[in-house]
Every structure is written in structure tokens, then in C-alpha cells.
């Protein structure tokens, strides 16, 4: 059951415009010109609303992408800082650590593995984001 139409909306048309609308409404299968115009207005209103909603979604997506872009940029900077720090540490290590003799090498390797295992366990104990188990598994495999 359709709602009773009580509002009147008047539009003045030229004779050419009226003929075009009448022809279009008949070819589209509408019983009256009013039905065709009413349906056309509702379709246009719906499309306008959808267009507005689509623009709002696009703006939210663009804002999200801008945020992610900034975070990626910051992470790249941090990665470069970490790499530079590691590079400096390696330079210091290789510059100031004397090479081991052949007779001390097996003992040094065993002690290094033991210290590394304790280091991984220590790091694992300090993690609270779920990586603790990963660090423990890694230390157990060594």
C-alpha cells in the first residue's frame, strides 16, 4: 500500500521539454508523465546522496592513507637510525677486538653461545607483546 500523495510540486516547462519528457516516459513504460518525473527526481536524489556518501568515504580513506604514510615514513627513519647505530657498533667491535688464537677459539665459541642464549632469555623476559614466547623458542633452538 503506497502512501497518499498530498504535496504538489509545480514545474513550468516549454512545449519542447514537455514533449521530450512525455516521449521518454512512454518509451520507459510509465503510465503518466507524473510517474516518470517523480521516479526521475527520486533516482536523482538517491544518486546525489550516494555521491555525497562516497565522497565522505573517499575523504576518510585519504585521511587514513595519509596517517599510514606518515607512520611508514617515521618507521623508515627509525630503521635508518637503527642501521647506523648497528654499523657504528660493528666498526667499534672490529676495530678494537683482537682476533683470537687458534687454541682459544673453541672455548670462546662455547662461551659466546652461552652468553647469547642468556641474552635472548633476558630479552624474552622483558617483552610483553607476545614476542616473549618467540624469543624463548629461539633461545631453546640454539
What does this structure look like?
Helix 1 (15-27) crosses helix 2 (33-96) and helix 3 (105-126) packs antiparallel against helix 4 (131-141). The protein has two domains: 12-97; 99-142. Helices cover 77% and strands 0% of the residues. The longest helix is centred in the middle third of the chain and has 64 residues, at 33-96. It has 142 residues and is mainly alpha-helical. The protein is rod-shaped.
Q: Which helices and strands occur, and which strands form pairs?
A:
Elements: H1 15-27, H2 33-96, H3 105-126, H4 131-141
Helix pairs in contact: 1-2, 3-4
Précis, in short:
This protein has helices at 15-27, 33-96, 105-126, 131-141. With 142 residues, it is mainly alpha-helical.
Amino acid at each position: 500500500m503506497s502512501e497518499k500523495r498530498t504535496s504538489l510540486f509545480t514545474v513550468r516547462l516549454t512545449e519542447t521539454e514537455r514533449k521530450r519528457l512525455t516521449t521518454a516516459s512512454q518509451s520507459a513504460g510509465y503510465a503518466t508523465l507524473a510517474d516518470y518525473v517523480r521516479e526521475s527526481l527520486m533516482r536523482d536524489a538517491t544518486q546525489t546522496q550516494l555521491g555525497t556518501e562516497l565522497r565522505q568515504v573517499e575523504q576518510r580513506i585519504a585521511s587514513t592513507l595519509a596517517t599510514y604514510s606518515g607512520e611508514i615514513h617515521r618507521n623508515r627513519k627509525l630503521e635508518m637510525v637503527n642501521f647506523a647505530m648497528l654499523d657504528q657498533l660493528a666498526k667499534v667491535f672490529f676495530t678494537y677486538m683482537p682476533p683470537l688464537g687458534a687454541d682459544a677459539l673453541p672455548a670462546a665459541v662455547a662461551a659466546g653461545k652461552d652468553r647469547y642464549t642468556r641474552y635472548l632469555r633476558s630479552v624474552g623476559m622483558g617483552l610483553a607483546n607476545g614476542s616473549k614466547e618467540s624469543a624463548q623458542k629461539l633461545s631453546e633452538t640454539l
